[in-house]
Amino acid sequence: MITGSIVALVTPMHADGEIDWAKLGDLLEWHIEQGTAAIVPVGTTGESSTVTVDEHCQIVKFAVDTVAGRVPIIAGTGGNSTAEAIELTSSAKALGADACLLVTPYYNKPTQEGLFRHYEAIAQAVELPQFLYNVPGRTACDMLPETVARLAEVPQVIGIKEATGDLKRGQQIRELCDIPIYSGDDATSCDLMLEGARGTISVTANIAPAKLSAMAVAAVNGDAETSKAIDEELQGLHEKLFLESNPIPVKWALSQMGRIEAGIRLPMTPFSEKYHVELRAAMHHAGVIN
Fold first, then answer.
1. Is residue 84 part of a domain?
2. Could you confirm whether 161 is annotated as catalytic?
3. Torsion, CA 102, CA 132, CA 203, CA 239, rounded to 10
4. How many other β-carbons are positioned within 10 Å of the β-carbon of residue 70?
5. Does residue 282 belong to any structural domain of this protein?
6. CATH number for the domain including 65?
7. Domain residues for 28?
8. In terms of pTM, does the model score above 0.90?
9. What is the C-alpha end-to-end distance of the chain, expressed in Å?
10. Is residue 275 within 8 Å of residue 245, measured between CB atoms?
11. Fewer beta carbons within 10 angstroms: which end of the chain, N or C?
12. How many CB atoms lie within 10 A of CB 171?
């Protein structure tokens, strides 16, 4: 079972929006060096909604080939069409991904029964471990604890990325089942891990992978003093990386660190200049820039 810091990896792009494969390779190597426990390519932060299906598969293959088994690759394969999610998950398996991350079907607003059947159908169609992903702030769809408990009994379902930011939600899920929980909300991730979550699937890990890894390891091991001390340094990043829609701020921050160019695809736009000072100050406080 994967524990600790899992990065929701950006997809580096040139100014014209084309994927920057060299920088993607550099980021993958950096995360392994910095102690990141696993890598999620083409999730929300990886602009899964703006890359083509062919590019999506190319990114997964590139990540699998580059990492070469050194850490697990958890491919983002969600979709609001069950058939499309099955197709992407099948491709991820064929390309060598270790698991998949499946966001709840966005826009459709399915019922809880529809959510159960969606994930059940994917699990039955593809023999690949799957993480559920609940992020109602982006999808207009909330997978309730009772549905999570039903899905915990489905073969292939091995965890949930819970991104409501509501610590009570974690408690509710734990009361109903023993599915491994992973935070999907950086601001509350330390507390959720101290309460029993196995790790965090993090945006902040893009910027401060070593510190996020150290914080997550300490929190998972119940070391509140160490984990909270590190998390205090990161709280500014947890907040300011969401001044505009993810991944707009995090891609700008990485460009300021010289890790990538600032390329991003419409309908996402470059990070607004009015927020630059705030995010740069949070980066300085976290020790990622001078």
1. yes
2. yes
3. 130
4. 12
5. no
6. 3.20.20.70
7. 4-222
8. yes
9. 36
10. no
11. C
12. 15
Token duo for residue 227: 């984990």
In a domain, 119, yes or no: yes
Name which of 195, 123, 189, 127 is nearest 152 in CA terms: 123
Number of domains in the chain: 1
Looking at residue 1, what is its pLDDT?
Answer: 86
Which of 61, 93, 161, 240 is catalytic? The answer is 161
Which entry of 23, 61, 93, 133 is annotated as an active-site residue? 133
CA–CA dist 275, 188 (Å, integer): 23
Residue pLDDT, tens place only, 217-274? 999 999 999 999 999 999 999 999 999 999 999 999 999 999 999 999 999 999 999 9
User: 254 in a domain, yes or no?
Assistant: no
Alpha helices in the chain (DSSP H): 21-34, 53-67, 82-95, 112-125, 136-139, 145-151, 167-176, 186-194, 209-220, 224-240, 248-256, 276-286
Q: How many of the other CB atoms lie within 10 Å of CB of 168?
A: 9
Please say if 133 is a catalytic residue: yes
